[in-house]
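Chain A, query sequence.
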Amino acid sequence: MAEEIAAAVAEATAALEQKDYQTAAQIFVEVLQADRENAAALAGLAKCQIETGDLQNAKATLALVPPAKKSDPAVKSAEAALDLALNPVDLSEAAQLQKAVDMDPDDFQARVDLAVALNGTGDRTSATDHLIYVIKKKRDWNEEAARKQLVKFFEAWGPKDEFTLAGRRKLSTVL
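Chain A, predicted structure.
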C-alpha cells in the first residue's frame, strides 16, 4: 500500500511539474482518500489550487496538514507559494524600482522590492541576482532581509526547481 501511494504521489508530482493541474489534483485527491494525512499529497494539492488561483481552498488544504508534518519540505514549499500568491506585487512599481536602483545601485530596499516584483513577473533569474547583490555588498543589512527573501523564493519554487538550484549555487559562492 505504501509503495502504491508513493508511486501515485510521484505521478501526481510529475503532472504538477508539467502544469497538468487537473490530473495532478485528481491523483492527489485519490491519495488523500487512502491516506488523509499524506503531507506530500496535501502540499501537492495545495500547489495545484494555488496555480489555478483557488487560494482559499489552498489555504484550507494546508490547514489539514498534521502539526507533526508541518516541517515537511513539500509543505513548506506550498506554504511559501501560498504566501507569495496571497501578497501580489504591484507590477507598475517595478519600473520605478528599477529607476531607483539605476540611480543608486546600493539602495538595498529598492533592490529587495524590485526582486519581489521581478519574481512576481516570473523573472526568477533577475530576482535572484538583485538579492545576491545585496547579500554580497552587505549581508547583514536589515537583519539579512535579502537572504531571507531569497530563501523564501527557494521554498516557494521548490527544492528541485532549476532556478532554486542555480540560486543556491550563487548564494553559496557569495557566502
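The mean pLDDT is 93. Residues 2-17 form the longest helix (16 residues).
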